[in-house]
Amino acid sequence: MLFDNIVVIAKKEIYAVKNINDLNKLKIKYLGKKGYITVQFLSIKNLNKKEKIKKSIIFNKQKKQIQTIIINRKKEIELEKNDKKFLNQKIDITLPGKYIKIGSEHPIKSIINEIEDFFINIGFKIVTGPEIEDVYHNFDALNISKNHPIRKEQDTFWLDKNILLRTQTSNIQIRTMKKEKPPIRILTSGKVYRNDYDSNHTPMFHQIEGLFIDKKVTFTNLKGTLSLFLNFFFNKKYKIRFRPSYFPFTEPSLEVDILNKNKQWIEVLGAGMVHPNVLKNIKINFSKYYGFAFGLGIERLAMLRYNINDIRLFYENDIRFLKQFKFNNFI
After folding, report:
1. Residues 126 and 211 reside in one and the same domain
2. Which of 168, 189, 172, 191 is nearest to 180 (CA)?
3. N or C, which terminus of the chain has less Cβ within 10 Å?
4. Which residue stretches of 17-126 are H helix?
5. What end-to-end distance do the CA atoms of the chain give, in Å?
């Protein structure tokens, strides 16, 4: 082989082959242990240093050029093979495409988004806050007495004597009232934690609470807002009952029931006018400003909407359960 044109000769031979096996044979011929380039390196071992360096540079250059040609030809042969394979295939263009299953939003998340959108549209803003909370923001500022049963370990997850997992999202309301001046119109949502577990309770669940503080907020405003929301959420007008109740942080307090299709009253949420002691704790002038607050459990509303009798089903990650959600007419 001529020393100067070895790359040209190799290129002609490489591009003449039509398959990978023949290409590999040429690779061995030129770059193998007994191939042309290896022989050339062995032939210069007895030359002087200057000549040896000169020849080595040339042989390395030839080696790299031949390697590049082989790699490029291999890609071309593989591409030609694939093209021929696809061209020879018979494709029925009338066949339906492959069905790709698309996931859906978890029903709890979907309901949270739906409720938040409703209250945003009537002027509320969404506020979030810490799930690990101190006693003051979770209990004391909300007018919850020292001996209230919810403070006990049977109901609350305590991390130490002063730190706990929040038992309601009202802690966010306290933090917001400390930072902002009235008027305040917020909706708080998130996970809350209580030490309870059965078909109607889980240690972690989701809660949404609303707060409206201004100079002329009345009980009528509260009733109107809740009626508007419930008719929106259940997509119909239902008979709603407001009955007296008790919560430490509201006065007066109430619970709201709706009449289902079986003529049964179903409790859906709790609410009331913000207790003056709560406003006093946050240093808001309770003789000038008034407000209402309400709270509802997302899982509770989801169970009512979808006629589910066990809250734990939402958290078992059973695809058969999660994929079947559609609007129904439970109520």
Report:
1. yes
2. 172
3. N
4. 20-31, 36-43, 49-88, 107-121
5. 93
- Identify the CATH number of the domain in which residue 266 sits: 3.30.930.10
Side-chain half-sphere CA neighbours of 28 within 13 A: 5
Q: Angle, nearest 10°, between helix axes 107-121 and 298-306? A: 110
Residues 18 and 149 in one domain: no
The helices-and-strands tally (H runs, E runs) of the chain is: 11, 9
49-88 and 36-43 helices, crossing angle to 10°:
180
Domain boundaries, position 70:
6-88
CA dist., res. 86 & res. 70, Å (int): 24
Buried b (16+ CB within 10 A) or exposed e, 159-196: eeeeebbbbbbbbbbbbbbeeeebebbbbbbbebbbee
> Where is the domain boundary, 88, 121, 138?
88
Contact 184, 176 (CB under 8 A): yes
User: What is the C-alpha separation between 156 and 150, in angstroms, rounded?
Assistant: 6
Last residue of a domain, one of 59, 88, 117: 88
| Tokens read off for 189 | 């949502």
Residue 83 sits in the same domain as residue 111: no
How many domains in the chain?
A: 2
Yes or no: say if 212 and 221 are a contact pair by the CB < 8 Å rule.
yes
299 and 255 within one domain: yes
> 140 and 280: one domain?
yes
pLDDT tens digits in sequence order for the chain, 331 residues long: 445 588 888 888 888 988 989 888 888 888 888 888 888 888 888 888 888 888 888 888 888 988 899 899 889 888 888 877 777 777 777 888 888 777 778 889 989 999 999 999 999 999 999 999 999 999 999 988 888 777 777 788 999 989 999 999 999 999 999 999 999 999 999 999 998 888 788 899 999 999 999 999 999 999 999 999 998 998 877 788 999 999 999 999 999 998 887 888 988 999 999 999 999 999 999 999 999 999 999 998 988 888 888 889 888 888 888 877 754 443 4
